[in-house]
Design brief:
Layout lengths: L1 H17 L13 E3 L5 E3 H6 L3 E7 L4 H7 L3 H9 L7 E7 L27 E3 L6 H5 L7 E5 L5 E6 L2
Parallel strand pairs: 3-4, 4-5
Antiparallel strand pairs: 1-2, 3-6, 6-7
């Protein structure tokens, strides 16, 4: 009986560790992604400039992502401290749904609403080979917001899990 209990604990621990995002203090994997407006965003370039980068991993179909989006918290952070504010941070939104190009405007089949309305944060429709960014950051749940400090370390700020 003890062996079964121990096996259960080991399997449970492995399951939780396999489903976790990057640990706080880990080094952020670099990426270069192009947003919907055609602007390229290179993570390490921002960090080398001394900026802090907030990455919101989300999906347009996700009700929790939509509810968080509607709080305006990241938009306010972006407006105050982003390129049009003090220029200390960068906020990026990385969308997880594949092959759903109309989702940002609220017209796609799998969307909660119009993500573009009132939003000035760069949004990336992550497709093709760029989707490795989700594996690199161990994305298993969304919304997930990670802060990447200029020393390239990550800190989980929020998650829907």
């Amino acid at each position: 009986m003890k062996k079964i209990g121990l096996l259960f604990i080991v399997l449970l621990t492995l399951n939780f560790s396999a489903n976790s995002q990057l640990a706080d203090g880990s080094i952020a994997p670099d990426f270069t992604l192009t947003d919907r407006d055609g602007n390229e965003h290179h993570l390490y370039q921002y960090l080398n400039e001394g900026k802090v980068v907030f990455i919101k991993f989300f999906a347009c179909h996700c009700p929790s992502c939509w509810n968080y989006h509607n709080t305006g918290k990241l938009e306010q952070l972006h407006q105050t401290y982003g390129p049009d504010g003090t220029d200390q941070i960068i906020v990026l939104m990385l969308e997880h749904d594949q092959y759903n190009p109309d989702a940002f405007s609220g017209n796609g089949g799998y969307t909660q609403g119009d993500w573009e309305a009132g939003n000035t944060i760069p949004m990336v429709d992550v497709e093709g080979n760029d989707r490795t960014v989700f594996d690199d950051y161990n994305l298993n749940y969304y919304p997930m917001i990670m802060k990447v400090c200029s020393d390239k370390t990550v800190e989980l700020m929020s998650t829907g899990y």
